[in-house]
From TrEMBL:
It comes from Candidatus Mediterraneibacter faecavium. The keyword Cell inner membrane does not apply. The lineage of its organism: Bacteria, Bacillati, Bacillota, Clostridia, Lachnospirales. Residues 25-358 form the Aminotransferase class I/classII large domain. Pfam families: Aminotran_1_2. This is Aminotransferase class I/II-fold pyridoxal phosphate-dependent enzyme.
Length: 362
């Protein structure tokens, strides 16, 4: 039997080896990283400050937290920098020590992986394709009455690109607060949202002590190799306990310095949104008109697409695209995602046009 390989968004090396392709010939639509790449300003200032590697970072990351505070409009004492959101997810779960966790799925597999090292049970609440992956908040609240003490959300969600908007989020947080359920919200993609203020839960950290919001710089700021993330919570005692468990100087000196420069680079932030927002809308409209596919309103920098043409699988479309030098994500490995789905992010306009043409010929 011919077993088809399963690749993830960061598996470009494995894909190139399998298909005998060169990495430099591939346009990676699978990693969801800003196609502008690292800010030129950030590159220049990092190059001019390499001597920072000769000294320890400030153990409190005071200047960095002040910069994030201004960027997020939240008190600096709410902020915990870390070595990527992966470290913060691990620290949060270790500190919280939940007994029964509910994960909004389909979603990023790292949540489940980190929970597997804890004593918590883990179950999924499925976003439904027939609802276009829009959350039914009241139904989720009914499910949460089943003895859960921890809820994990990604908002906007990966891979569905759907989002829970402000009013629904407040209803959900209010319910969880009244039932002693701690909520972790991963906002990796929130800066790509059409209206960030309509999606972000950061302002709610002033009101709800059962909430922590996580963000990073891997996707929007195109810096996955920096391994820099930050958590935000108004629960001072919980933050203190997380910090106690964190390895000292978790974020290196260059990462802390570069992080400050990223959040101050308004030109780069504006250029990114001016690129992504109209291109995402163009791709969404184009795919919506293709009879072989169904897609869903996107809030992140990527689209989830269902293949509705008989006899065509997600692997078929993935393979056709990769042979054209276009790497998309075959979503068959995502839990809670029944059917044939692919996902691809917004790249530069000429590359997006190439992908739309390839999809349109299938």
């Amino acid at each position: 039997m011919d077993i088809k390989p399963v690749f993830h968004g960061s598996d470009i090396e494995k894909i190139c080896e399998y298909y005998h392709l060169r990495k430099e010939d591939i346009t990676n639509f699978g990693a969801n990283v800003n196609p502008l790449g690292l800010s030129e300003h950030v590159k220049e200032v990092i190059a001019g400050h390499l001597d920072l590697l000769s000294s320890y970072p400030d153990r409190e990351y005071t200047s960095l937290r002040d910069t994030i505070s201004a960027y997020c409009q939240i008190p600096a004492e709410y902020i915990l920098p870390g070595n990527g959101s992966s470290e913060l997810i691990s620290l949060l779960i270790e500190t919280l020590a939940p007994k029964h966790t509910l994960i909004l799925g389909p979603t990023y597999s790292e949540y489940s992986r980190e929970l597997s090292f804890s004593g918590s049970t883990q179950e999924y609440y499925h976003l439904r394709e027939e609802d276009n992956f829009h959350l039914d908040v009241e139904d989720l609240c009914r499910a949460l009455k089943d003895g859960y003490d921890f809820l994990i959300l990604c908002n906007p969600n990966n891979p569905t690109s759907s989002a829970i908007l402000r009013e629904d989020m407040e209803q959900l947080l209010t319910f969880c607060s009244g039932h002693n359920i701690f909520v972790m919200i991963d906002e990796t993609y929130v800066e790509f949202a059409p209206d960030i203020n309509a999606v972000t839960a950061v302002p709610f950290t002033r009101k709800y002590s059962n909430l922590m919001v996580l963000r990073g710089v891997s996707k929007f700021f195109a810096a996955p190799g920096m391994r820099f993330g930050y958590g935000i919570t108004g629960n001072a005692e919980f933050l203190r306990k997380m910090k106690e468990k964190q390895i000292p100087w978790s974020l290196n000196s260059i990462g802390a310095f570069a992080g400050e420069e990223m959040f101050k680079d308004q030109e780069y932030i504006s250029r990114t949104r001016e690129l992504i927002l109209p291109e995402r809308e163009r791709m969404y409209r184009a795919v919506s008109q293709m009879p072989a596919y169904k897609t869903y309103e996107p809030y992140a920098n990527f689209l989830l697409v269902k293949i509705i043409k008989d006899g065509v699988t997600s692997y078929d479309v993935f393979e056709r695209c990769i042979k054209a030098g276009l790497m998309i994500r075959d979503c068959s490995s995502f839990q809670c995602l029944d059917g044939e789905f692919i996902r691809f992010c917004v790249m530069m306009p000429e590359d997006n046009t190439r992908l739309l043409h390839e999809l349109g010929t299938g």
